[in-house]
Task: inverse folding
């Protein structure tokens, strides 16, 4: 639902067809959001199938936007990389739905599974903030740039650590240290996002980046921290 809103709000006014499609996805996911409140175990697989179908259609819509962006055939303020990160989030959602469709409980994934997904997402978030921050807001711009660098470095470290899993070892001191470092940095970034939201910067110093987007990002980082804690305690 939020992704549809971000796309709708970022499209140029001339992109009437794409705007209408985005509005359609907003309404569809609103309906699914209401429906999920009433499902039980027996109806979960059919709901997951319905949600997965909607997610796949939204994913193809995002791919179409990316293709048109790369060809210079669409007007939108979001970058192809930002929309690409939204695709990765959607694919993770579909991954979970796949288990629910089969009537299975989604497994607890390894910490590095979450690192590879959400660190890439996080440096995209920080980079988007930096790119859209007015130059006069030097303190916020410097912070977002620093977070971008840190999360990029963390992501590369996660890629490196993932190769060690091939040695059939799931937990080791370097991974535990890495988990702690990410946890601290992600909590700092979440606080930074809340600070942006509280200052209502969208109207004053931001362009395509908005306060609702900061709120959405903060929720995603919180989800990342929760899933990471779940994996570490498994």
Result:
């Amino acid at each position: 639902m939020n992704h549809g809103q971000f796309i709708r709000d970022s499209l140029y006014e001339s992109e009437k067809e794409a705007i209408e499609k985005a509005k359609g996805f907003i309404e569809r996911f609103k309906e699914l959001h209401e429906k999920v409140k009433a499902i039980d175990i027996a109806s979960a697989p059919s709901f997951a199938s319905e949600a997965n179908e909607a997610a796949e259609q939204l994913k193809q819509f995002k791919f179409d936007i990316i293709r048109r962006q790369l060809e210079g055939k669409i007007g939108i303020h979001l970058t192809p990389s930002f929309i690409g990160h939204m695709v990765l989030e959607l694919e993770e959602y579909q991954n979970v739905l796949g288990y629910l469709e089969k009537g299975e409980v989604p497994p607890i994934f390894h910490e590095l599974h979450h690192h590879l997904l959400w660190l890439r997402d996080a440096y995209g978030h920080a980079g988007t903030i930096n790119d859209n921050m007015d130059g006069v807001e030097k303190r916020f711009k410097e912070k977002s740039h620093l977070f971008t660098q840190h999360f990029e470095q963390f992501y590369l470290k996660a890629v490196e650590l993932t190769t060690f899993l091939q040695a059939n070892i799931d937990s080791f001191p370097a991974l535990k240290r890495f988990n702690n470092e990410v946890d601290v940095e992600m909590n700092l970034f979440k606080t930074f996002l809340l600070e942006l939201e509280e200052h209502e910067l969208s109207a004053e110093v931001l362009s395509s980046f908005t306060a609702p987007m900061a709120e959405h990002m903060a929720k995603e980082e919180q989800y990342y921290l929760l899933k990471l804690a779940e994996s570490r305690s498994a």
User: Anything to note?
Assistant: Residues 109-233 form a domain with the Ferritin fold (CATH 1.20.1260.120).
